[in-house]
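Q: How do we represent a protein-ligand complex in a form that can be generated token by token?
A: Start from the inputs.
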Amino acid sequence: MLNKLNYLDGIHKTVLVVDDEYVGREILGAILGGQYNIIYAENGEEALQMIRNNEKILSAVLLDLMMPVMDGFEVLDVLKEDARYRSIPVIVLTSEKQAEVESLKRGAADFITKPYDTPEVIIARVRRIIELSEKRLVIQSTERDELTGLFTRSFFYEYAVLMDRYHSEREMDSVSINIEHFHLVNEIHGREFGDWTLRVLGEAIRDHARENEGIAARGDSDEFYMYINHQENYDALEKRLKVSLSELSGTAHIKVRIGVYSGTADSRDVVNRFDRARLAANTLRGKFNRTVAYFDQDLKHKVFYEERLINDIHEGIDKKQFEVYFQPKYDITGAKPALSAAEALIRWKHPEFGMISPGDFVSLFEENGLIQIVDHFVWEEAVSAIRHWKDVYGITVPVSVNVSRIDIYDPDIEKRIDGLVKEYGLLPKDLHLEITESAYSDNADQMMEVVENFRKKGYLIEMDDFGAGYSSLNMLANLPIDVLKLDMKFIQGIHKDKRSLRMVQLIMDIAGFLGVPVVAEGVEVEEQYKLLKETGYQLIQGYYFSRPVPAQEFEELIKEEQGKGEE
Ligand code: C2E
Ligand code: MG
Ligand code: MG
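Then emit the structure tokens for the protein with magnesium ion bound:
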């Protein structure tokens, strides 16, 4: 059992005492037992066994040289040969001068002479040796993060596992902390200031962890972790971090997000618990009045739901649960609106969850690349529909498909889309590619290159959700695009307030300057439609004309359109 607690950032230091004589073990145990957790071995072989079993938590070994079965020298030789054990300092216990020299040569860190000095001397020596070896570990730096001196993530996880093992009765919280928009802090105030911020935060986090018998680590960039005793609430931490950050600088407004997962009892592995804490922290994105979030039932359901979706996607595709809907775009420049194109929008009819809209899964599937599976399916359905309408109605209804930012990184994207267009005997201009505005700023160079190549071949590129991202006008002037799709938000209020309307007019001017048409998306009511027409908008998509509908229903719209022509 563990003795009185004594923490190295919360980890109890363990010392192995190896001596064949009972009295020798008893004396050292009595002297050091107040400070360390002592474990014992009676000979070299037992010692090696103990070292193997306790490798990760062993701070030092006190080793008698003269022992039966296997003596101390042999133990030293084995330890020296093995990288896992080399960093554990060994203090030899001996009464012979000659043996001291020999054992230092064989890798011992220090020695204590028999008969033993006063307890204070022994305690001081052991402490010094442990400190030295810990410092060496810091320098070797795999255990510690250089900037903050906190544990690195992998060591932190290992220690957390040990804490669970040795203190299974403790109720623990897994805490994930990060800084809102840390990359902006770096960009605006400089790297040095960024580093300073991390150090200040790291110090406060370490202090808090210590006070709550826990450990702390820094992961990538601005991610911090704490594994500490369960807290009723996180007011104290919140306050502490606020105070230490306020010391930084009056001008830099730095906000942290704290995510908490409570509980060890459900036997989730450590990494998983911290994933959950981080998920909780991420729910605070953009919530400026809150700093702390807990992994609660809602989040738990969301995680289960998302895990299910990820799990079910392949079967969903195989069993044709996915269906492409089409939403018409109308040309409003003539006397009567005319059906001119369509957007393909994915729907998932899940056997258990019912109809799932892309809002639930597109960004989820973008995170793990699965979106490509969906998009490839949609592209093929789209070209096949264009083909079908050409054959049956003798007209071409160009279809826009959504191209995820993830698709852009796929080196085979051009080949795939070209292949589909050829296979179905279409022209590139029959297929429009919608790419959301924010994707352009992710990786501008690659995006430009891919988009340029498509345009050269004759595909039309539409910039989706225009105005929701952060393109500068300067950037916009140089973008290779053919159509702007105005983000829905802009349309919402135009029939209610003048400023919104004015905004939509300004965007029309910009589009005019760029020489590209604009599609107004999300048009729901007649007043919006009329105002847009007056402003000079040419293309409109929205519930006012039609919701996205299954292919068969879309055919009715085509028939209707053809009927109009015969009137
Ligand atoms: P988006 O590409 O901007 O598509 C337009 C969204 O607005 C669609 O939502 C459409 O149903 C909705 N909408 C159209 N008219 C109106 C209206 O008048 N009022 C309102 N309130 N909404 C309207 P949906 O189908 O739920 O798709 C949401 C987003 O999911 C899409 O936004 C697109 O970014 C993404 N998405 C949809 N299908 C796919 C796909 O096949 N692949 C990829 N990568 N993303 C897709
Ligand atoms: Mg779109
Ligand atoms: Mg859009």
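Residues 343, 402, 434, 464 surround magnesium ion (ligand 2) (CB under 6 Å). The first strand starts at residue 7 and ends at 8.
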